Amino acid sequence: RSDLLLxxxxxxDIAGKADPEKTLWAWAWNxxxxxxxxxxxxxETSEVVVVLTDGREVRGYPDARRSRQGRLTLLGEVxxxxxxxxGPYSIDEVRSVRRAxx
Length: 102
Known about the structure:
The chain has helices at about 1-10, 10-15, 25-30; strands spanning about 35, 40, 50, 55-60, 70-80, 80-90, 95-100. By secondary structure, the chain is α+β, with helices and mostly antiparallel strands.
């Protein structure tokens, strides 16, 4: 994530007027295909299970608006019947992402 943050600071020089969220960060999150949509970036339409490097699993819907600069925020069930936020989790903390089973 730190290298990507450095690249983001110079992104206008490298990529012109391209939005870093739609180019650099979309590319970085692309290593987790179940998390991203090819045209839209982080996909909010599917519930996912995120496995973190410390072994924890978090289940929820990605919040693309609040997932910025290599940090992922999910909206999920914190307690039965109560929804809340999980994260933000650094891209460095994410080991894998898979779509949740129904």
